[in-house]
Amino acid sequence: MKTISALLLLSASAASAYTLHEWGTFTTVAGSDGVLLAGLEREEASLPMFSYSHLGLENGNIPRGIEEVTRRHGDTPIFVRMKGLNRPVRGVTVKMETPVIYFHSEEAFDVSVKVGFNGGTISQWYPDRTGGETLPVPPKPVDPEKPRPMADWNLDFSKPWKGSIEWQGRVLSPAESREAILFKPTESFQWMRPRIPEANVIRTAKGETEGFLFYRGVGAFDPGLTTTVSNDDTIHLLNRTGGDIPFAFVFEKTGGTTRWKVMKDGLRADAAAEIPTSGFSEATPDFTVGMVEPVYREMVAGLTATGLLQSEARAMVETWWSSYFAQDGLRVFWVLPNAKTEAILPMEVSPKPEKSVRVIVGRSEVIRPAKEREWLAMSRDGDENRRNAWAYLCSGDRFGAAYKQRVDALAATAAK
């Protein structure tokens, strides 16, 4: 009897002798006044067709036919037939992008994972989930020939929202992981880059196999770092997260010039920082490879210092390089304090890991006053080409809806 008890205790100990690592991004856009802007539901990078989503939130995925949408969800609402794969939403001020969860274990074990989302919905995921929130749907119309209007399908994230997702699967042993086939013919390079050789492979009861658990979401909440820009172009940061920000990185690309400021010690709780234009390092990218090497190295080093493996930090930077560092604009990258991450994305895992490292990076897109004035002038310009360029930016740019909100507010203020 003692021997059996000892074996059970040993088995339980072995099953929990693992570590869990996670990285992901909260993206926001703010005007020079620091106010977070809505309209962030547009996708940065399309997901492969094998990924899952709530009905209508396939937003940005490699297109499936209506038959495939109907097969997966059992319904074909009007917004699929008329407007593409986009359910109408409003009030989205935060885009949660590509959190991936890794397991590091010397043994195989069964695992259950539940992640909540206080302030948003977990809209896309892979492998398929075993539980989680169900989005509200309007009642079916009395007359099938008169479907519900689009407005009835709207999801309003300006109201309190609480999402969730659950997975059950098996974490394979290192030997099994090496033999597992992760290749999927329709995967994109953004999908492949998060895979790292050190992580165990996860397999679900459906047989879906991957090197991580993946999810995305949209919502409305304040991650906690206020960013403003004064008329002299000084950047002002205020940490309102309730904890210490362990690392921050300010980056700006304008045409052929790249500038950055490393804040290796981050920003203390309730502390403020000012970064004048003279406070940046500056370089011209190597256009043969499209990067400034110190930017890559500093960002990877900062993420590694927060607890990620170097391979994980590199995977994050490389996955989002074109979005983080190849696009023009001013943005602040900062690591959320652990307590803030747990408050927004509470996680329950069984068996519990010996150690967990969760690195959620705030990506704060910031608009300088000069850019706001330029856009305001474009929106009012008598030249049709300039007005059309502004309209195209609003409709075609990923952050175009947020830019329009800011310019509309400036125009309303100017009219008073």
Structure description:
The chain is α+β, with helices and mostly antiparallel strands and 416 residues long. It folds into three domains: 183 residues, no CATH class; 106 residues, no CATH class; 44 residues. Helices cover 27% and strands 30% of the residues. It contains twelve helices and 21 strands. A hairpin with a 2-residue loop joins strand 15 and strand 16. The chain is globular and about 60 Å long. The N terminus is likely disordered.
SSE layout and pairings?
Blueprint: H1 2-16, E1 18-30, E2 52-53, H2 66-73, H3 78-83, E3 89-90, E4 94-105, E5 109-118, E6 120-126, E7 131-132, E8 155-156, E9 162-171, H4 174-179, H5 189-192, E10 202-204, E11 209-210, E12 213-219, E13 225-229, E14 235-239, E15 248-254, E16 257-263, E17 272-275, E18 281-283, H6 293-305, H7 310-319, H8 321-324, E19 329-335, H9 338-344, E20 347-350, E21 355-366, H10 369-380, H11 384-396, H12 400-415
Helix pairs in contact: 6-7, 10-11, 10-12, 11-12
